[in-house]
């Protein structure tokens, strides 16, 4: 058995980013930039007003002064002339500050007549003027390659006049559930069978991680069928299987893929739940063989599949973020497998959350997985802890799961 850290390192080391493709701006959300975005213009393009009011010479704007209004400068319609001594130009937010003016008099600080304006409050030079290039300058790198694009980044790219983005293709992930006993939701369930929850949970998780899931038909516990289904996934950036990872006579993933050219890197991690995880390669396609128990499959996905998706998407791939919490119950000494306890979070003392583990941690229990808000981390050999002791937890809400 290898450690969680080593397993993640080996998975990440075997993966490279998908090639880049060019997409229109709205399709770039959540993708990772393959090329930096350089501003194609300066923003703002000139000195502009930040307020509705009057473009003035600050020296003229003393309380009680009256200025002649000689024109208007709405946004998009610059005033062609120059503001001279004792003069003002009616201006609106975003309007270009006319030549000669060095401040904006707020309209709330002025009283207008048909052709003049009375100053009610003095102005300072530069007041309410957004300088040319305040936001960014032409040629400046506004977004770096390797960044996962947020809605705000899309806005910035648009402002920089970039209609297209070079982003890494969303990794295509084949999902293969195996087992004689499982049926897709809504299909007839064989005697003694169960519904396959893993494929759909994994597809949703792949989406949350920026990937493009492809749910393959369920393969029965039959080497031929598993091999055939896996062949269909060769065009994917990664194949994820669930079930058949353990040591039982019907746990066939490794033996079925062997004749197809499967090269195993490692099998079995010192962790709970999820010990019998398989990692290897089928030709060029990396294969992550998750255990069949639904909680094991999902916990392994948090620890390994999400970082793998990050790596395929163009990011380095990192362990899930952890936060400090306080044990919400006494915790026994841990054995040599890294444990991940499903827990709820409650507000605790001094803003530190209380992580309350579910009393039953069986790896088949979906309800507690769905209700869990965090996984309490228990390192191999961790000593017993009393309620209130500090613990590290992975908050699940962060991951969009
Ligand atoms: N003698 C041993 N038995 C087991 C060991 C072991 O070390 N020695 N490990 C246990 C652990 S830990 C795990 S985890 C499981 C993993 O088993 P497999 O990956 O081979 O999974 P299966 O046996 O196919 O199924 C396990 C369990 O999960 C259910 N399942 C399977 N697929 C799905 C699905 N798509 N959706 C929902 N549930 C699914 C399946 O019905 C089984 O109940 O092995 C232990 N055994
Ligand atoms: O590794 Mo298993 O996931 O404990 O049930």
From TrEMBL:
Key words, A-Z: Magnesium, Metal-binding, Molybdenum, Molybdenum cofactor biosynthesis, Transferase
Query: What does this protein need as cofactor?
Result: Mg(2+)
Record SUPFAM superfamilies: MoeA C-terminal domain-like, MoeA N-terminal region -like, Molybdenum cofactor biosynthesis proteins
Cited SMART domains: MoCF_biosynth
Q: What is its EC number?
A: 2.10.1.1
User: Pathway involvement?
Assistant: Cofactor biosynthesis; molybdopterin biosynthesis
Looking up Pfam families in the UniProt record yields: MoCF_biosynth, MoeA_C, MoeA_N
- Record field: catalytic activity: adenylyl-molybdopterin + molybdate = Mo-molybdopterin + AMP + H(+)
Superkingdom assignment: Bacteria
Locate the coiled-coil region(s) and give their ranges.
none
| Matching CDD domains | MoeA
Q: Which InterPro entries match?
A: MoaB/Mog-like_dom_sf, MoaB/Mog_dom, MoeA-like, MoeA_C_domain_IV, MoeA_C_domain_IV_sf, MoeA_linker/N, MoeA_linker/N_sf
Q: Where is the MoaB/Mog domain?
A: 174-311
Q: What does this protein do?
A: Catalyzes the insertion of molybdate into adenylated molybdopterin with the concomitant release of AMP.
Record's family? Belongs to the MoeA family.
Which protein are we looking at? Molybdopterin molybdenumtransferase
